[in-house]
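User: Fold both of these, please.

Assistant: Here is the first one.
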Amino acid sequence: MTLKNIKWPNPSGNGDSNAPRPQPDTGNTKWRTMVGLLIIYAAAVLNWQWIWGVFSLYWIIPDFFTGVTYFIEPIARKHTPILYWLIMITWVAFSVVMFFPSVSAPRAA
């Protein structure tokens, strides 16, 4: 299945959800993306668990405003509210666990 055959949800409910989207300007350097990649590399090398919590929150905060989250496929709050909120709660819980990994780690007997 190609991506062009997927019907992406339109959170506003107006217009064609499969209308062509504007392409990003490729002439600019994507500094935030490059910094994010460097942070991921540092987190992997230095075993920073908390950074995954930060990234998870950064990825889901816009989903609260748009009403659409992406987990395997787009999930719209308008059409599948229970699944949408289940995914959002899961991501927030994951973020909290990543901020406090010692609490979630199994204790030695």
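And the second sequence with its predicted structure:
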Amino acid sequence: MMMRANGWLPAVAAVAGTLIAGAAHADTASAKIAVDAAKAQGLVGEQADGFLGLVTGSADAAVKAAVAEINAGRAQVYAQAAAKNGVTPEAAGAAAFNSVISAKLKPGEFYKPNGGGWVRK
């Protein structure tokens, strides 16, 4: 079933609001510190699906574990926001990237738009 634009836009906005409130809970302090350092080194970036990714395709075990931990937390937040707002978890993740995550990207950090390769901000 396809939703009309005027039906899903308010839902996406509500998802974004939920994600702003829940995002801090998804990231543990030590994992966030590790990921922030890896972002500054150009090893990790933000993807249009709302999840972190490895820019170079490889990183040490600690960085991979931190990325996995944060992504698992984000997946829970997206699933909760999706259930609350009647959208898919994928739509919630994309909404988070478009309205929250992309706005927080710092100069020099990497992001990966839909269908594209890694781009440095």
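The beta strands are 44-47, 52-54, 110-112, 119-120.
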